[in-house]
Amino acid sequence: MKKLQMVDLKGQYEKIKGQVDQSIMDVVNSTAYINGPEVHGFQKDLEEYLEVKHVIPCANGTDALQIAMMGLGLQPGDEVITADFTFAATVEVIALLNLTPVLVDVDPKTYNIDVDAIEKAITPKTKAIVPVHLFGQVANMDAIMDLAKQHNLFVIEDNAQAIGADYTFKNGKKQKAGTIGDVGATSFFPSKNLGCYGDGGAIFTNNDDLAHTIRGIVNHGMYERYHHDVVGVNSRLDSIQAAVLRAKLPNLDMYNAARQHAARKYSEALSKSENIITPTTFTHKKCDVKCSICDTCDCHVFHQYTLRITNGKRDDLVKHFQEKGIPHGVYYPIPLHLQKAYADKRYNEANFTVTNQLVKEVISLPMHTELEEDQIEYITTEILKIVD
Ligand SMILES: *Cc1c(COP(=O)(O)O)cnc(C)c1O
C-alpha cells in the first residue's frame, strides 16, 4: 500500500509535471511575473469554465472574501450572517471591516448554514448572507436566494471548498457554485480542489458594475493610473501561480470525480455502522441529464470527507489513528461563536445545538485525487475496529 497522506499533492503533480514545469519556466523566462498574460489567460479560462461573466484573480481566499464585501459597499455596523461551523477566515474578514458578524447554526445533515436560523437572525441592520459551501457541499442556495430577495440582502458565497460543484435548482436549472449569489469568493490554497503551488484566490460575479469596482479595489483603488478613487488593497494572483492553475483547470472535473469516487467507496464501507453518519449527498431526480462530473448528479465535490461518530468514540478514533499513523483532521474542533475573537454576549447557546454537537463528533479522512482502493479499505477497516 502507498503511504497514506491527508492530501497527495506530489502524486497529483507527477501526472502533469511536464506541462506544469514548462508553464512555470515560460513565466520565468518571460519575466512577466506580475499581471502577466498567464493571469489574464487563467481569468478567461475560469470565466468560461464557471460560465460567469467576471473572474477577478487575487492573492488568496481570505482576501477574496474581504474584497467582495468591500466591493458591495458594506458599512461599519451592517450585520452579516454566516455559519458558526466554518473556517475562521469567513468571519474574520467581516470583523476586520467593522461589520457585525452574526453567526448562526448549521444543518445537521449537510453541516451547511441553516436557512431557518438565517431567517430568525435577520434584523433591519442585516445587509448580507455568507453561505459557506462547506467540505465541498453546496449550501441550500434555492432557499437562501429566495430569502435574500425577500429581505433585499446581498449573498456572498464562500466557495473556497467547492470549486467545480454544480448546483441544481428545484426547477432543474444548474449553475456552478460561487456564481449563484451577488458575488463568490474562492481560494487556490494548494490543498483546495483547485490548488496552486502557493497562495491564490479569486472573486466571481455576473454584475458588470461590481466587477469594475472590485478590479479597482484589488489594485490600490485605482481605476486610472495613479488616481486613487477609493481605499483599496494590493491583492494579486502572481503569474507563476496563474500558470499552474491554467495547467490544472482542464483536470478539475476529473479531480472532483476522483474525490467523489473515493467518497463513494468510503461510504459503502462505513454506512453499515450504526455509530457512523456518512456525508449526505443529494440526487436531483428532476435532472434528466447526468452532470459531467458524477453519475449521481449530486452537488458535493468532497473537499473533505467528514464523518460523524455518534457513540462518543470520536476521540478514541483520533487516538487510534495517531497510533497507526493514519492521517486525519478534526474540522472544526471549536465553534466560531465560542472562539475568543468572535464571542458575543448576544449569542445564546441554545441556538447552537448542532455546531456544539458536530465539534464533538466530526472527523475528516484522507481525501485527495490519488487515493487508492486498498488505502480506503485499510482506513475503513481500522475505523470499524474502534467505532463499531
Ligand atoms: C481555505 C478557506 C478560506 C481561505 O482561503 P485562503 O486562500 O487560505 O485565504 C476561506 N474560507 C474557507 C471556507 C476556506 O476553506
From TrEMBL:
Active site: K192 (proton acceptor)
One GO MF term: pyridoxal phosphate binding
Family: Belongs to the DegT/DnrJ/EryC1 family.
Keyword NADP: no
UniProt keyword list: Pyridoxal phosphate
BP GO annotations: polysaccharide biosynthetic process
Residues found modified as N6-(pyridoxal phosphate)lysine: K192
Keyword match tRNA-binding: no
PANTHER family attached to this UniProt entry: TRANSAMINASE, UDP-2-ACETAMIDO-2-DEOXY-3-OXO-D-GLUCURONATE AMINOTRANSFERASE
Pfam family, one: DegT_DnrJ_EryC1
Name of this chain's protein: Cell surface polysaccharide biosynthesis protein
SUPFAM superfamilies noted in UniProt: PLP-dependent transferases
Source organism of the structure: Psychroflexus salis
